[in-house]
Structures are given as structure tokens and as C-alpha cells.
Amino acid sequence: MAEQCSDTEVTFRLARRRSSVPRARAVLRAVLEGWGVGRDVAETGELILSELVTNALRARAPHDRQVGVRIVRSAEDGLLWLEVSDAGAGRPEVRAPGRDETCGRGLLLVEALAECWGVRDRAGGIGKTVWARLKAPGLAPVPGGEEVAAITVQVGQSVRVWGAWRTVRSVRSEESPAGAPSIVLGLDEGPALWVDATEPVTVRKDAAPG
């Protein structure tokens, strides 16, 4: 699962397998906790994201095409956006399944829980992006920090990861499977963070290298 993080946005990709649904929920839960979102809103967001990811996994697309997830917040407006992209054709539609049908109710749930939702063509590729917006008045303000290239991050600094500050314990250079230079940041909590060497990461302004 590849990810990119900032103070206002988290994006990641999921393999086309059933286990990706609980994984997406777990990531969202961690992000929203760091953003100060209340429990009720977080639970609603998890339900919505579960349905969007489930629908994306069911879309007819090559098995090697991943599902993209984007979580965006606007603290000033108190709004949260959840977006799920897939390479499948067609547009999802709200259905009214029969009493005995066991599926087909996902978008009914999204429509009921979200402030609004919609579909747009996937930017720069085939497929679509399904998005949902919900009110999250408890969003914490964006903390102070500055964006720097990952290659300049040093041990002892604090970086913003999954909506929370983490202290960098180690820094090493690696080569990605595609042959691009990458930086691996070992953190004081959670898994190591892999980023492209030139990818911007948010560093706390008052965090001095140790």
C-alpha cells in the first residue's frame, strides 16, 4: 500500500482484494483521530468509505489495477471529503434492491449518511472517482509546519504522518521497484514511511534535528 500524506490530505492505493476494505477503514480511523474528528463523524466516515471501496473492488477492471483512496479535510469549512477511484467502466447508480436481495444497498447508505456525493471521470486515466462529503465541525486546525523534500529530512525532526506528528528515528536511501530513488523514514511509532526522494513531507518548524 503506497501512501502520500500532508496536513490536509492523505492518499493511498489498495490491492483488489477483500482485505482492502478493513485496511481502508483502519487508515481512515487513524487519520481522523489525528485530525481531531469526533467519534460519530468518524464512524459515519468509516461506513461510507467501506461502501465506496467495496463498490470499487466489484467494478470490472484488470486485477492488477489498484483502487485509489483520497481523504481530504477543510478545517476552516468543517468538511471532510472521501474519494475512491477505480479503473472500471460505467457509473454507479443508486438502486432499490428487493427485500430478498443481499447486495445493492451500498449507495443508498452513502446517500443517507453523506451531506452529498457524486461521480466524476478519473483524472489522467480510465475509470471514475466516486466522492462523498460530510460535515466534520470538530476538525482540528492545521498545525504549523513546512514542506521540505523527503531527502532533506534528518533524524530527530518531527514529520506529519497519518494526521499525527511522528519523530524520525532513522533515515536511509533505497531504490523503489520502479528504480526511482526513495527515502525510508523510521519513526518512533508505526511502520516506516517510504517516499520518493523529492516528495514533499511536512516537518514541524520547531523540530530541531537530534
Helix content: 10-25%
Count of structural domains: 2
What share of the residues does DSSP label as strand, in percent?
35-45%
Broad CATH class of the largest domain: Alpha Beta
Alpha carbon gyration radius: 18 Å
CATH architecture of the largest domain: 2-Layer Sandwich
What does the largest sheet look like?
A: 6 strands, antiparallel
Low-pLDDT stretches are none
Bulk shape: globular
Name the helix and strand elements from N-terminus to C-terminus, one letter apiece: EEHHEEHEEEEEEEE
CATH topology of the largest domain: Heat Shock Protein 90
**How are the strands ordered across the major sheet?**
1-2-3-4-6-5
Q: How many helical elements? A: 3
For the residues shown, what is the average pLDDT?
83
Question: Care to describe what's here?
Answer:
There is one protein chain. Helix content is 20%, strand content 35%. It has 210 residues and is an alpha+beta fold. Helix 1 runs antiparallel to helix 2. The longest helix has 20 residues. It is globular, with a radius of gyration of 18 Å. The protein starts with a strand and ends in a 7-residue tail after the last strand.
Q: Briefly, what is this?
A:
By secondary structure, the chain is α+β, with helices and mostly antiparallel strands. The protein has 2 domains: 3-135, 2-Layer Sandwich (Heat Shock Protein 90), CATH 3.30.565.10; 146-203, SH3 type barrels.
Keywords, separated by commas or semicolons:
six-stranded antiparallel beta sheet; 3 helices; globular; alpha+beta; SH3 type barrels; 35% strand
